[in-house]
Amino acid sequence: MRKPLFALLFLLLLTLLACSLFPAATAAPPAEDAIATAVAATLAADTSATSFVPPTEVPPTPSVEAPASPKAVYVLEGNVWLWQPGNPTFQLTTSGDARHLRISPDGQIVAFVRALDETTVEIWAVDIDGRNLRRLVSADDLARIPRPDEAVGTDIGQMEWVPGTHTLAYSTVPLFIGPGLMPANNLQLVDADTAAQRTFLEPGQGGRFAFSPDGTRVVVSTATQIDLLWLDGRAPRQQLLAYSPVMTYSEYTFVARPQWAPDGSHLLVFIPPSEALVTPAPSSAVWYLPADGSAARQLASFTTTALWGVGDNTPLFNPALTHLVYFSEEGETQSLHVAAVDGSSDEVYASAPQITFFGWAPAALQFVYAADENAPLLAQVAGASAPLINESTREVRDVTWLTDDIFLFTLGDCTVDGCNWQLNFKTPSNSGRLAVTTRVYAMPEISVSR
């Protein structure tokens, strides 16, 4: 979701809330069987290798099959639930302390974080039928990962499955008393079948990570560069792009989010200007990063709303990496643009005082947006738009796709006392409500396998 008028406010709130991102929970663990350019003059491509080389002796990881049918899992009031189109919801856990989850690529395992108290977390897993509940990473395991002496605990940062496997990758975040975030910038791996663990990147050597579609490579982004590594250690770490640090006017650190092409041949990344709040407004750039390590090149530049693409995780590029969405602003009017990644086309789809972007649909050229408080629209690149659902934008907080025509959407009504959330579904032939929760701040988190 994107609301560019509030980008600066978002970043300030992110800083203030950093010390309370890890809610307390006191339930005990369940029993085993319980349920260069226009960007900045200093932007440059650099294909030189760094000194760090990942382990060369890496055991092969068995591949897994694609899911037989789409599935969605979600956390609701601390418990993990499953929904499959055409079936009732099914509760997978009962401990009441889950808060972050990912479903495996084959849809057979759900990994989730349990918050045992304000500073203690663990990673657990459960099979999709609710059986074989097990702990993958204990609090003691996390405590052994190096962290500053003043840290009072360790939390999970990013958590993703390696594509085509049952290997879970995660990074950690040391916890401190007071505001601020200082990610460990590491990369840990754990096998969800055997619970075998290993460190792939020590603290300080990692960053935000994204795996190739075939699960053989990973790109790691920091505040100044993007590197490529092979998981089997067959080649040295290689720098794909170096860029100038992006000023966010807050304690939040911008880290680039490159997206892989479906065939794994290359990545695209959107880099904002190093200083956004200057006149005249500087441009952002789209970079093409070949996955074979050859030189990166800039494809296009765009003048966007200040801090566009800085503080939100919604992908800017469509799944096929042919188009991107961005916002511009003139006076009190925002405009939603859809442009070809090479800049050869750039079309304004809507202009209004406030526009919300809900993300791209799985179909390569479809996306969801809303103007002001009107109902969200499903738009087609170079085509027409049609209402997606009837609810107003004021209530719709999230849209998550399972297939090209099946999706979940979250409605929220928030006050100072908390939020009332409704999780709903829509298929070509049916729609309905999956769950309702009241007076909690955390929106239900959803993970899908397609």
What is the fold's blueprint, element by element?
Blueprint (H helix, E strand, L loop, with lengths): L6 H11 L53 E6 L2 E5 L6 E2 L6 E6 L5 E9 L2 E8 L6 E4 L1 H5 L9 E9 L5 E9 L11 E5 L5 E5 L6 E4 L5 E5 L3 E6 L7 E5 L16 E2 L5 E6 L12 E7 L6 E6 L20 E8 L2 E8 L5 E7 L2 E6 L5 E6 L5 E4 L4 E3 L8 E6 L5 E9 L2 E9 L4 E10 L4 E5 L1
Antiparallel strand pairs: 1-2, 1-31, 2-3, 4-5, 5-6, 6-7, 8-9, 9-10, 10-11, 12-13, 13-14, 14-15, 16-17, 17-18, 18-19, 20-21, 21-22, 23-24, 24-25, 25-26, 27-28, 28-29, 29-30
Kindly report the average pLDDT value: 86
CATH classification, class level of the domain at 1-64 and 104-305: Mainly Beta
Shape: globular
> Which CATH-level-2 architecture of the domain at 1-64 and 104-305?
7 Propeller
Unreliable residue stretches: 1-60
Q: What oligomeric arrangement do these chains adopt? A: single chain
CATH topology group of the domain at 1-64 and 104-305:
Methylamine Dehydrogenase, Chain H
Strands, count: 31
| Biggest sheet record | 4 strands, antiparallel
Strand content range: 35-45%
Helix content: under 10%
